[in-house]
């Protein structure tokens, strides 16, 4: 029985080790899973997130991605655990728009606030120090984009499609307003009240 328990404990431990090892040191984030992963707008219950906004279309930023990976690996032994992540603004510009940043940028999501790294020192040591003790004031986390914002962002670069979409929304609003006006005009007249009937009876009696 003791042997069975020991083997079971070893199996669970190995499973946990495999799960931890399977998770990348630096997590790639995109609009589709950003809120699920970070809980940025709903309390940040998944912990502290440290995010590099970079661009795959800028070869000059490759070195910064390597530095970010090095800093994240060096930070693994520290506690509490910080989630290191990246956002590719070339393929997902919506997140850059949401946080009003362009690549390269570094944001720390902590205590329900956003702290933006502004130091010119981009060494692994400096980046790790900021993650543990940000030296700038934080700002409120901007809310996720709405459905219309996402639709417009998806059509970015296609000016004709954006104009047509905006025109469709305007036409829909005008049609709705016209429908309300027409319904008001077609409303049946109110039934005669007691006062007019009473007044007519009094006139007849007179």
From TrEMBL:
Keywords from the UniProt entry: Membrane, Signal, Transmembrane, Transmembrane helix
InterPro entries: Thioredoxin-like_sf (IPR036249)
Residues passing through the membrane, by range: 160-184
Gene3D superfamilies named among the record's database cross-references: Glutaredoxin
Segment forming the signal sequence: 1-22
Coiled coil: none
PANTHER family: GH08893P, L 2 01289
The protein, known as: Thioredoxin domain-containing protein
Natural source organism: Elliptochloris bilobata
């Amino acid at each position: 029985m003791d042997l069975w328990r020991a083997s079971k404990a070893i199996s669970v431990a190995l499973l946990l080790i495999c799960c931890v090892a399977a998770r990348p040191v630096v997590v790639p984030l995109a609009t589709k899973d950003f809120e699920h992963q970070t809980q940025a707008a709903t309390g940040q219950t998944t912990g502290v997130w440290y995010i590099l906004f970079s661009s795959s279309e800028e070869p000059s930023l490759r070195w910064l991605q390597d530095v970010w990976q090095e800093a994240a690996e060096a930070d693994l032994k520290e506690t509490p655990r910080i989630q290191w992540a990246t956002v590719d603004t070339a393929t997902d510009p919506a997140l850059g728009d949401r946080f009003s940043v362009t690549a390269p940028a570094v944001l720390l999501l902590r205590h329900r606030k956003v702290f933006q790294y502004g130091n010119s020192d981009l060494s692994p040591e400096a980046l790790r120090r900021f993650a543990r003790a940000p030296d700038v004031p934080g700002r409120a986390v901007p809310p996720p984009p709405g459905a219309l914002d996402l639709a417009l962002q998806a059509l970015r670069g296609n000016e004709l499609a954006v104009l047509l979409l905006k025109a469709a929304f305007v036409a829909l609003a005008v049609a709705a307003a016209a429908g309300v006006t027409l319904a008001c005009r077609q409303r049946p007249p109110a039934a005669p009240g007691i006062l007019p009937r009473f007044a007519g009876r009094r006139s007849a009696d007179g």
